[in-house]
Amino acid sequence: MNPLISAKGLSKSYGKFKALDAIDVEIAPGAIAGLIGPNGAGKTTAMKAMLGLCDFTGDLQVCGHDPREQRHLLMQDVCFIADVGILPKWMQARQAIEYLSGVHPRFDRNKAQQLLAKTSINPHSRIKTLSKGMVTQLHLALVMAIDVKLLILDEPTLGLDIMYRKEFYDRLLSDYCDQEKTVLISTHQVEEIEALLTHLLFIRKGRLILDSSMDAIPDTFHEVLVAPEATTHARLYNPLHERKLLGRIAFIYHNQDPEVLRSLGEVHTPAISDLFVAMMQGAQE
Amino acid sequence: MNTQHHRRQMTSLIQREFWEHKFASFWVPIIILAISLLVWLRFNLGSASFLVDQLANLALLPAAEARAQATLLVAMPTLPFASSLLIVIPIYLLMCLYEDRKTGSYLFWYSMPVSNTKTVLSKLITAALLMPGISLLIYLALCLGIIFLCTLTLLLHGEPLTAIGILLASLSRWSVQLFLLMIYLAFWLLPLYGWLLLISAFARSVPVFWAIGLLLMLALAERVILSSSYFSTWLSSRGLPYSEIFNNYTNLFAAMPWYEMSYGLLLGSILLAGAIMMRRFPD
Hints:
The complex is a heterodimer. Chain A is 33% helix and 29% strand. Chain A is an alpha/beta fold. Chain B is mainly alpha-helical. Chain B is built from 13 helices and no strands. Chain B has helices at 3-20, 22-44, 48-60, 63-75, 78-102, 106-110, 116-156, 162-188, 190-202, 207-226, 230-239, 243-247, 258-278.
């Protein structure tokens, strides 16, 4: 199947600062991909390029369109939620529904109204009077009523309390995601979404430093708990990272023979958040 | 994509402009209506006999003179509506695309499947037709309200309603005239509208500075380099249509300067195309 997003040498500079530095990536239909990186790594810039919101160099195709030239066609197939409340403050919830049903050919007004009825939002309230959590609920209700191929979420739960965060991802997973929907989520809170993901992308200083399916992680990355006296030996096998853990040292290895690693200590698959820290710090050295 | 889809999108885009600018496009003319009505009542409520005399006098005048005077009466309340539009429309055009980019909701507008052409055209239609159209309707409501009060007064005093007929005839002629003027101005002022939209699409800050500053600089450059002042002369002649159009309102389109109208339309279209291109990226 053709990839839904395909980038080759995608670059974007602001003056001398390289926000994106020759990114090559392909995201297949049906994937739930996490774009994970620290603040300022280029996550938002990458998403803006994919949405046709900024110019760039290199090749980029999203749903078969060049986002720069065909943004309005692309937007029939793509939805977007960002951390910042992007819904217009003066608008009423019912006006947002009215507007979308006028401009968006794939918007299902009844579905949006049903979804909105499940929340405590009054359709006549203006968006500026809603709490941040309610604005996100409203935005999710609007987006879930649009039948698109690709959903791009930029730190969608930033600044929300845990109740809303959990509800957000539960809804997204249970009511929205199926084989035909592709999702690209950016976050720096990895642990929150790792269970959802089928694909993992780590980005640091505008470069992709990891591009892997979730299924491949247990075969390529290993965490070994090594007794303090064996650490010198363990360091011989080029660990990505080491840290102290309950009196032992946890080493993370990339592409090492599991047999060899088992001789060093207890081997298991690293948590994504530990892998993230390991790769971010590893790349720094 | 069929025509129905395009029409629906355009309607929603214009509706959005109306919601967002409801104060400027609806409440301002409503406030003008309320104030005008209060002023009229203040002057006529206390001395109904004066009003009755005036109306009786109007009915006694020769037909042509009566019509001229009645037209003057119904034309007078146009002034506050027109003046408010003169302020509201340029500010709206100058700020609309700028604010779409500068407020936090730019990501929302840009993530809609709406082409830049449609977005810019929806703003143009809002400024050139919707805002003046609403003002025109509210002006009509005001005039009809006042004529209704005149009718009541005459009836209460047992006077004939001849003057009311004259007033209504003048109002209908004048309203058609205003409607035609609105259409006329939508075309005549296209270069100005295009210019304001272009600046709105392009300015990174203080669009009003760019809109006026660039024109002044062009005029100044011409004065210094070519020691001529064609540009500034042209600008001032272009601001509003010739006074002949107002005077000769019985035949608005016959008095139209075709040549200037057509190159104005061409220039306006070029500026609009510029605005559409400039809207491509928000940053």
